[in-house]
Design goal:
With 191 residues, the protein is an alpha+beta fold. The chain contains four helices and ten strands; from the N terminus they run E-H-E-E-H-E-E-E-H-E-H-E-E-E. The termini are close together.
C-alpha cells in the first residue's frame, strides 16, 4: 500500500527503524507505571512503541530503497496485546526494562519478518537475532539495585492491555541526544 505520510528528505545518514505506535490510552497506562525505580531513565510518552526491525545508520540511497521496499509489505490489520514486564541484560546486570507483547502472535512475527526482509532487499545488513516484541519503558543505570528492580517487576507483572488494533506501521528516524533518543516519523504504511 502507498505511504500515507509524505517522506522526509533523506539527505543525510539516518538511523532508521520500523515500529508500531501505541494508542494514547495504552501509552498513558504505561507512562503511569514509570516510577518507583531509582536509576531508571524512563522513556518519554512519544518514544513508547513496538519495534519491528532496526536498520541502523544508512545513507540516502539505501533509505530511499528501504522506503520503497516497505511499500511492498502487506498483511492486513490484526491485534496485539501488551502483557507482563521484564528486563533485558546479561548475567551481571539488567540494562533495559520492558513491557511485553502477548505471544505467540504470528501476524506480528510475520510483519516483523517482512520489515526485516525489506531491509535485506534494500541492501541493509540485518542482525540475526530472534525477534522479541516489546515496548522499552526505561534504560537502567549500572547502579540499579537488583532487589528494587525485582520488586518493581513483581509489582507490575500483571500488566495486560486490552486488544490493540494494528492497521499501519511507521518508518522512524532516531537521533541520539544526551537525554536519549528522539524519534521522528518519516513515513507511514497501511496494512
Amino acid at each position: 500500500m502507498e505511504a500515507c505520510v509524505p517522506a522526509a528528505t533523506f539527505g543525510r545518514m539516518l538511523r532508521l527503524f520500523t515500529a508500531l505506535t501505541l494508542p494514547p490510552d495504552v501509552a498513558e497506562t504505561l507512562k503511569r507505571r514509570q516510577s518507583g525505580l531509582p536509576g531508571a531513565r524512563w522513556r518519554p510518552l512519544d518514544a513508547l512503541h513496538v519495534t519491528l526491525a532496526f536498520y541502523g545508520e544508512i545513507d540516502e540511497r539505501r533509505a530511499d530503497d528501504l522506503a520503497s521496499e516497505l511499500t511492498l509489505v502487506t498483511g492486513g490489520p490484526f491485534e496485539i496485546a501488551l502483557k507482563g514486564v521484564g528486563c533485558f541484560g546479561d548475567d551481571h546486570r539488567s540494562h533495559t526494562l520492558w513491557a511485553g507483547v502477548e505471544t505467540p502472535n504470528e501476524r506480528l512475527s510475520v510483519l516483523a519478518g517482512r520489515c526485516k526482509a525489506a531491509g535485506e532487499r534494500a541492501g541493509i545488513g540485518m542482525e540475526a537475532r530472534t525477534y522479541k516484541p516489546h515496548v522499552t519503558l526505561a534504560y537502567l543505570k549500572t547502579q540499579t539495585n537488583p532487589d528494587r528492580l525485582g520488586a518493581w517487576v513483581s509489582g507490575h507483572n500483571l500488566l495486560h492491555s486490552p486488544p490493540i488494533r494494528i492497521d499501519r506501521f511507521g518508518l522512524y528516524s532516531s537521533v541520539l541526544t544526551d537525554s536519549g533518543s528522539h524519534y521522528e516519523l518519516e513515513r507511514e504504511y497501511l496494512l
